[in-house]
């Protein structure tokens, strides 16, 4: 993955009296948030799951290269779902990450790539611990 020292990271969300939040990355990416159950688009929970899926897919490609399997790695799809807690506070209590590898990789190679991807992925590493959350005013 890209060296974060070379890429600014961060995001802002703005919300008016009505409507939904609009988010913007420090590099200029923009995304509208939705909350209705039938609205197409991303809600905050989708974004968390999408971040894990994207990170794991990129990490799988790196892992394949590290493990000497790049010649057999044609691509990967990663599906992520989360299980929400039944009690308060509102949170995910677990994630399921499913890899769909393309290429000439046997099951053992696929598992090795998936496990190495988890070790590489900044998002999975952050979710594995409880990171410090500092709250302040701008």
From TrEMBL:
Origin superkingdom: Bacteria
Q: Which Gene3D superfamilies match?
A: 3.30.300.20
Known SUPFAM superfamilies for this protein?
Answer: OsmC-like
Know the name of this protein? OsmC-like protein
């Amino acid at each position: 993955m890209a060296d974060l020292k070379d890429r600014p990271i961060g995001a802002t969300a703005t919300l008016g009296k009505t409507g939904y939040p609009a988010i913007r990355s420090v590099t200029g990416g923009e995304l509208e948030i939705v909350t209705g159950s039938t609205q197409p688009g991303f809600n905050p929970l989708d974004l968390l799951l999408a971040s894990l899926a994207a990170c794991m897919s990129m990490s799988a490609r790196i892992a394949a290269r590290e493990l000497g399997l790049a010649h057999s790695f044609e691509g990967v799809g990663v599906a992520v779902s989360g299980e929400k807690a039944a009690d308060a506070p509102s949170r995910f209590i677990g994630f399921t990450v499913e890899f769909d590898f393309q290429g000439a990789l046997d099951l053992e190679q696929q598992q090795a790539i998936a496990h190495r991807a988890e070790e590489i992925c900044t998002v999975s590493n952050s979710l594995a611990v409880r990171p410090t959350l500092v709250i302040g005013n701008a």
